[in-house]
């Protein structure tokens, strides 16, 4: 599995559609200060499901949408597509090439697509998580982030390893199921109280 290409449209400083192609191996992005190198990394993180504006160096999520310049008006939507070579089947989907797209509208709506088909954020996250490149796996090490990995407490370190091993998804599902079970127990106790009162 390797990242073949990324297309940005209206994402941060990339107002016009811009496609970056990547070959297997190491890719370096070079450019002057403020030219958008970190925006490329933000786009990668965003399309992989990042939900925190702060992680994307913004105050609110809409900050990822092109805000306009003196010569160009702001845009109403941001879109990033990631094309992944899946000929080795690392992503559990029957396509040799997978394109993941995230779109966000200025009115707050957003859309996720897998190979052009609209899907839920959960489907998107599950697909990535199963292959070990989900949102919480630190494949992207930002400036200063190395420190947080090195200084993570044992639980934090365990979370990185669990994500890489693909068990984090199951842990989250278990936690969700346990929360539902607790709510059910509370409801059941309430029903028992009421039936007790009616006897
Ligand atoms: P450095 O080398 O200094 O770290 P860089 O190449 O990583 O710089 P970025 O931080 O990726 O640069 O890009 C910053 C530029 O992106 C700034 O000019 C900023 O105005 C622009 N930018 C960020 N968000 C938006 C947005 N929503 N709309 C338009 N431009 C934006």
Automatic annotation (TrEMBL):
Q: From which residue to which does any coiled coil extend?
A: 167-194
Localization terms from the record: Cytoplasm
Q: Which superkingdom heads the taxonomic lineage of this protein's source?
A: Bacteria
List positions binding ATP.
Answer: 32-39
Similarity-based family: Belongs to the SMC family.
The subunit field of the Swiss-Prot or TrEMBL record says: Homodimer.
This molecule's function is given as: Required for chromosome condensation and partitioning.
UniProt remark on domains: Contains large globular domains required for ATP hydrolysis at each terminus and a third globular domain forming a flexible hinge near the middle of the molecule. These domains are separated by coiled-coil structures.
Name of the protein in its database record: Chromosome partition protein Smc
Which species is this UniProt entry from?
A: Streptomyces candidus
Q: Print the organism lineage.
A: Bacteria, Bacillati, Actinomycetota, Actinomycetes, Kitasatosporales
- Give the residues of the full protein shown: 1 to 199 of 1200
């Amino acid at each position: 599995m390797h990242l073949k290409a990324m297309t940005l449209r209206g994402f941060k400083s990339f107002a016009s559609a811009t496609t970056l192609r990547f070959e297997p191996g190491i890719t370096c992005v070079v450019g002057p200060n403020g030219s958008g190198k970190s925006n490329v990394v933000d786009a990668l993180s965003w399309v992989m499901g990042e939900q925190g504006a702060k992680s994307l160096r913004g105050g609110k999520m809409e900050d990822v949408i092109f805000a306009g310049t003196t010569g160009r008006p702001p845009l109403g939507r941001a879109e990033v597509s990631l094309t992944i070579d899946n000929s080795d089947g690392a992503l559990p989907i029957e396509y040799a090439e997978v394109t993941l797209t995230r779109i966000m509208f200025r009115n707050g709506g957003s859309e996720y697509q897998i190979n052009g088909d609209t899907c839920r954020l959960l489907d998107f996250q599950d697909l990535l998580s199963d292959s070990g490149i989900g949102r919480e796996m630190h494949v992207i090490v930002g400036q200063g982030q190395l420190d947080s990995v090195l200084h993570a407490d044992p639980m934090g370190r365990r979370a990185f390893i669990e994500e890489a091993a693909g068990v984090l998804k199951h842990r989250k599902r278990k936690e969700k199921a346990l929360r539902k079970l607790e709510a059910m127990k509370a409801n059941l106790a309430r029903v028992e109280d009421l039936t007790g009162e009616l006897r």
